[in-house]
Amino acid sequence: MQTATSKASLSVANSAAPYGLRVVENCADCSARQKTLFCRMSVETMRELNMIRQTALYPASAVLFVEGEMPRGLFVLCSGEAKLTAGSKQGEAIILRLVEAGELLGLSSLIAGSSYAATAETLTPAQVAFIPARKFQRFLRTHPDVALRVAEHLSMELHKSWEQARLLALAPSTRSKLAQLLLEWANEHGKTEEEGVCVPFHMTHEEIGRIIGASRETVSRLLSDFKRRRLIRVKGSSVYLVPEELRAAAI
Amino acid sequence: MQTATSKASLSVANSAAPYGLRVVENCADCSARQKTLFCRMSVETMRELNMIRQTALYPASAVLFVEGEMPRGLFVLCSGEAKLTAGSKQGEAIILRLVEAGELLGLSSLIAGSSYAATAETLTPAQVAFIPARKFQRFLRTHPDVALRVAEHLSMELHKSWEQARLLALAPSTRSKLAQLLLEWANEHGKTEEEGVCVPFHMTHEEIGRIIGASRETVSRLLSDFKRRRLIRVKGSSVYLVPEELRAAAI
DNA sequence: CCCGGGCTGTGATGCGCATCACGTTGTTCG
DNA sequence: CGAACAACGTGATGCGCATCACAGCCCGGG
Which CATH class is domain B171-249? Predict the structure, then answer.
């Protein structure tokens, strides 16, 4: 039943929840749904979708699928975080995109009928719903409006990808790339507090480097420098930052 | 009727063909159609599509749409070549993608209902069909199978974009990026001849630099070097290259 | 025809960042 | 609770490529 491989052992819904996760049994109850492809669906359609999905729980750094495999279905990240990476033969890999709760994994490859262009791996313990390819395709054919929403969704993904390319290619320096990345994160997940914008932060310097195309050491040095200049302040696993000042640093 | 702005003057189908282009009157006769989104459509569907499209001719380096504008329709590049670029405030721009005859321009923004994320500009004289947004949306709603093909198409675009990111980020040197770019072009448009693979070549060193993120001078130097090492040979506006050797150079 | 503007080749110079190297601080286990 | 390992901080060094500078080149237009 399961196509996914995992570094760690695999676990299935309805077992006693491991990894400290609470399992959401029904898509209709899922708080993440509002943000996704499947928002604004009729109750009836929702029920249909609920019928054809299976749920699994994964630990952190579990591999959902690997670049080059053929897709056997669609993954929905119900909770937790994941990353999409692309590797070279020599083993290095870049992070193409971070994926948050409510987002889909592997949609484009499934739709295009081609092999996965990236590897998906969880960053935190995560609940993941799986919809087998056949059933999803039948669902699409019987719900033309959803097909259009899929197209919309893919368009937005494409734009994000271009945005990323712009970030990487147009920034004059690594310093600027890092500053812009922080600002982007602040925009997406930041909460404004009196000290500045607070951003949760569970990513190693190594991984940040793989996003902006820099070495671990450079990321380390730049972050130190940002701290020294009071552009950011680290508290536990959160970063407080002052958007205006940081933007200025992103020459 | 026209939304496009252009550095040069605008011209409309049925006028005496300027820019040395032959005008294709009917989509069904278009040789580029086979490769596109609209291949394998029924004659009837094709006729419908033909009804709602308008054709225009543009000179080289005409701007079809600009980053930030709202899309007013879909462009189909019937003949010629174009590029998609993304710019920074400071005026620099990168080339996100080259677009060939038969491909679509602005599909993702139209579908997503968002403003253009890139600027489209012709590289050669080109014939362009235009389908107004409203009519295209109606067409999509009445042809659910086409909506799915649109999704497929967008998926492939997304994969190309990732492929580009991989090229840029994983290559160890500019030298390698350039070699890989040439190989990619050889794959897509190359014709194998006795001298090696022949690739048509109408792009300045400056523009190549904007694709791989390098300066004009570096591109110049690297190409010279490739010539010296007999990895490529320039003849007129074509490049002959030996894939195997070049691949080796792409350390 | 020759003149001017865009493209191209190639040197000299300097800076940014990868890389190596090593010490320090967490953090997860038996 | 301490061992073992991963993530972090920071110095020294060198290479790659941007940048500046200027000299041929090709082509179209007055």
Answer: mainly alpha
* CA distances in angstroms from B233 to A70, A93, B218, listed in the order given: 39, 33, 18
- The pLDDT assigned to A44 comes to 85
Contact B156 A86 (CB under 8 A): no
Model confidence at B16, pLDDT cuts 50, 70, 90, reads very low
CA atoms within 13 A on the CB side of A57: 17
Chain A partners within 8 Å of B154 (Cβ): 108, 151, 154-155, 158
Structure tokens at A197: 């914008």
DSSP 8-state symbol, B27: G
Paired strand residues for A197:
A192, A241
Chain B neighbors of A166, CB-CB under 8 A: 86, 88, 94
Q: DSSP string covering B176-194, please? A: HHHHHHHHHHHHHH-EEET
pLDDT at B99 over 80: yes
Structural contact between residues A141 and A151, judged by C-beta atoms closer than 8 angstroms: no
Q: Delimit the domains of chain A by residue range.
A: 11-168, 171-249
Quick one: pLDDT at residue B223?
97
Architecture of the B11-166 domain: Sandwich (2.60)
Cβ(B105)–Cβ(B77) under 8 Å? Answer: yes
Chain B residues 184 to 223 whose Cβ lies within 7 Å of strand D are 213-215, 217-218
- With vertex at residue A35, the alpha carbon angle to CA A33 and CA A38, rounded to the nearest 5 degrees, is 50
pLDDT in tens, A50-61: 889 999 999 989
End-to-end Cα spacing for chain B:
51
Residue B3: is its pLDDT beyond 70?
no
Reported as a single tens digit per residue, the pLDDT across A82-93 is 999 999 888 889
Q: Which chain A residues are Cβ-neighbours of B170 within 8 angstroms? A: 86-88, 92-94
Say yes or no to pLDDT of B51 above 80: yes
pLDDT score of A216 more than 80: yes
Cβ contacts of residue B51 below 8 Å, gap of 6+? none
CATH architecture group of domain A11-168: Sandwich (2.60)
Identify the residue with better confidence: B238 or B114.
Answer: B114
CA A82, CA B21: separation in Å to the nearest integer? 50
Query: How far is B57 from B128, CA to CA, in rounded Å?
Result: 6
